[in-house]
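Extended Data, panel c. Modelled sequence:
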Amino acid sequence: MAVAAADKPGLSVIIPALNEAACLDATLSCLQPMRKRGHEVIVVDGGSYDATVQLAERSAERVIHSRRGRARQMNAGAQEAAGDILWFLHADTRAPEHADQLILTALASGEHQWGRFDVELAAGGPL
C-alpha cells in the first residue's frame, strides 16, 4: 500500500511529552522505520526540564512547545500535523514494527471504527 505523496505524510504520530527522557529514546527508535516510509513524528513538549527536547530533536520531524497538559499538547500537535491520519502515542509506548501499515490497512478496509495494539509493560510493579 502506498503511504502518501512524497511531500505529505500519511500518518502524523503525535507524542505529548513531559520529562520523558528516560523512555522517549526507545519510543522514537521504534518509529524510525515509519519515518523512512514517509510518516512524520511530532513531539509536543509541555515544559520538560530533563533531556526530553534534546532527544526528540534528534529523532522527530518537529518538536513543538505547548502549555502543560496532555489534551493541550495533543491539540497543539494536531494543529501542526501534516498527515491525513493522526496517531496519538504515549511517550513510553513501543509501537509494533509495522504499526503504520496495520493502521492504513484497517482504515482502508472500512470495517474498523477504532483500533488498538496489545501492549507490554516494561517495568515491574503492582500490576
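The longest strand covers residues 11-17. This feature is highlighted in the accompanying rendering.
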